[in-house]
Hints:
It is a single chain. The chain is an alpha/beta fold. The protein has 2 domains: 2-108 and 190-269, HAD superfamily/HAD-like (Rossmann fold); 112-186, 2-Layer Sandwich (Alpha-Beta Plaits), CATH 3.30.70. Helices cover 37% and strands 20% of the residues. It has helices spanning 2-7, 17-23, 53-62, 76-82, 112-127, 150-164, 191-200, 218-224, 249-269, and strands spanning 27-31, 67-71, 89-92, 97-99, 106-107, 134-136, 140-144, 173-178, 181-186, 207-212, 228-233, 244-246. The strands form 2 sheets. Strands 5-4-3-2-1-10-11-12 form an 8-stranded mixed sheet, sandwiched between helices. Strands 6-7-9-8 form a 4-stranded antiparallel sheet, with helices on one face. Helix 3 (53-62) runs parallel beside helix 9 (249-269) and helix 7 packs parallel to helix 8 (218-224).
Amino acid sequence: MERMKSITMELPAIPDFWQRVRNANNRFFGLDYDGTLAPFEIDPMQARPLPGIADLLRDLATGGQTLIAVISGRPLAKVMTLLKNPPVMVIGSHGYEFWPVDGSCVVRQPTPEQRQGLLQVATTLQQRGYSHKMEVKVASVALHARGLDLAVAAAMEEGVAAEWHGRAQRYGLECRRFNGGIEIRCSGWNKGMALNALLDVQAADVFAVYIGDDDIDEDAFAILRDRGVGIRVGDPSRPTAAQGFLPECGAVASFLRTWIALTANERRDE
């Protein structure tokens, strides 16, 4: 026990967390990308992972003690590019794109009604002159406001929300805010549902952990209320379904190092 304390970082809200990690026979570890593995940037493709993150993910993946998945709202191809094709499972577009390490990419397709709605969203945003801030994904259209004057960003987001909050439902879509913008996306599938599907094919006693930073990660935190532990990056005073907190991305890197050191010690003890 004393040796374990010497290598672990504190999680005051979950005092028995590392003991639960150590005691688990099977472990699943999911991580968001933006705001978790990489600091935010105005240009999303400049939001590169913190130094050493790729190596830490590789160590986790090859250690044989934990199943790792990066679960992002970004398109799969962009996550793969930024992480330089990591040897871990990657899920993109809020769960609509799935890339297993040893298989081919699987894409969940929107319904015809949803595709029609997304086309209308994209057309409307283009007509309003937002093309340079718009990102079209397989199951959503995101409008990025990061880097804009705060008043301009707020007016842009509020305008889109006012137009699409109710209208989106006609097409099976939903309007969701995220850290740095607003997104109209397909309803009926999200990070939490994707995480739940992954856990359903794991061992019954799997100990699952998910780390994310944004309101869109709350779907995953809610799933883990009964199946593991959610940890939110950022202000601990914000309402959340997560049980633990880390202050910023750098703490996530320290968390990964602790996880690796703890399970490495476990292997040496066997």
